[in-house]
Amino acid sequence: MNNYLKYFLILFLISSLGVDAQEKLSLQQAITIALENNYSIKISKTQKEISTNDVSFGNAGILPSVTGDLIQNNNIQTSTVDLASGDTRNANNAKSNNLSYGVGLNWRVFDGFTMFANYDRLKELEKLGELNAQLVVQTTIANVIDTYYNLISQYKQLESTKTALEVSQVRLKNANSRYTLGRGSKLELLAAKVDLNTDTTLLLRQQDLIKNIKVELNQLLARDLNIDFDIEKQIEIDKSLVYENLKPMVDTNSPDVQTANVNQKIVELYIRQIKGARYPTLALTSGYNFSKNTSPPTSFSLRSNTRGFNYGLTASINIFNGFQQGRLEKNAKLELQNANYDLERIKQDVNASLLTAYQNYQTNLKLLMLEESNIDVAKENLDITLEKYRLGSIVPLELREAQRNYIDANARYANALYKTKISEVSIKELTGTLSF
C-alpha cells in the first residue's frame, strides 16, 4: 500500500465517523426536553410547591388549635394511716388509678395584627418561589441555547478543517506523483505528509471537541450522556434589537429586579410583625374533660368521677423586656434600608449588564458582516491558489498559507456568529424576554 492510499484510507475513516442514522435534535426540542428533565428545574418546581403549600391561615397562626389528651396513671402501694380517732387503716399492695381525657381549644384572636402580617409574608414568599423557579428555567434555557449554538459553531469549524484536509490530500497526491516522476524533491513530499498529519490531528481534535459538547448538552437535558445526535446547522440572528426599547423592560421583566422587589416587601412585612409585639394578645381557651379516680382503702374517698366544660379568656401585654422591642424595631428598619439599597444596586447592575451586552451585540454584528465577507474571499483565494498549485505555477508554501487563511477565516466567522447570538440571548435574558 503506497503512502497516498494510506492517507486516503485515514481520511475516509475519519470522514465516515458518525455516518450512522442519528437523532435530529432541533433547538426547540432540546429546550422542551430540558424543561421536562433538567434536575435543577425539577428541584425549583418542588421548592415552589412547598412555598405554595405554606400559604395557609393555619401556618400564619390565624386558626385555632384543638388538641385531644388522655392520661392513665396506675399505682400499687402499701400504706398505713393513723386516724385522729385512734383507729388505724392498713392497705397492702392496694391498687389505685387515675384516668382523664378531654378536648382542649386554644385560639389567639388578637396578637397586634402579627398573624395577618405573617400571612402576607407567606404570600410574598410564594411569589419569591415562583420567581426563583422562573429564574432557574430561564437560566437553563439560556445554557441550552448557549451550548447548542456553540455546537453549531464547532460544526462550522469542522467543515473548514475537512476542506483544508482535502486540500492537503490533493497536495500530497501531487507531491507524490512529482516525486515518483522525478520532478519533485523528497523534501516537498515530506512537507506535504507533515502538513497532512497536522490537518488530520486538527480534524480529530475538532471531532473530539464536538463529542464533548454533545455530552455537555445531554447533561443539561438530563438524559443518557452517550446519546449521539445531529443538529440544525443554521444560526438566525435577531438584528432588530434597539436599546431604547429594551431599557424600560428591566424594571418590569428582569427576574433579578423582581426578586429584589419581593425581598423588599418581605422586610416591610417583617417590620409589621415586630411592631405587633407592642399590642396585647388575646386568646380564647375552652375544653371538655372527664376524670375518673380509684383510691386505696386508706383514702377518705374510694372513687370519684368528674366531667365538664371549661372556657376562658387570657390576655397579656409586653410592659418591659429590657428595651428589646426598640432594638428589634430599629434593626428591622435598618434591614429595610439595606433592602432598598439592594434593590437600587441590582437595578444598576442589570442596567450595566444590559448596556454592556448591547454594546457587544452591536460590535459582534459589525464583526459578523466583516467575517462573512472575509470567508468568501478566503474561499476564493484557496480555490485559485489550489488551481495554480495543480498547474505548478506556485510553490507549496503559498498553498499552505491559503489553507491557514481559510481555516482562520472560518474560525473567526463561526466565533463571531456564536458571540453575536449569545449577546442577543444575554440581552433577552436580562430583559426577561427570553422565551421559547
From TrEMBL:
It is found in: Cell outer membrane. Transmembrane segments: none annotated. Pfam families: OEP. One of its GO terms (molecular function) is efflux transmembrane transporter activity. One of its GO terms (cellular component) is efflux pump complex. The keyword Secreted does not apply. The keyword Zinc-finger does not apply. InterPro entries: OMP_efflux, TolC-like. It comes from the Bacteria. Keywords: Cell outer membrane, Membrane, Transmembrane, Transmembrane beta strand, Transport. PANTHER family: OUTER MEMBRANE PROTEIN TOLC (PTHR30026:SF20). Belongs to the outer membrane factor (OMF) (TC 1.B.17) family. This is Transporter. It comes from Pedobacter psychrophilus. The lineage of its organism: Bacteria, Pseudomonadati, Bacteroidota, Sphingobacteriia, Sphingobacteriales.
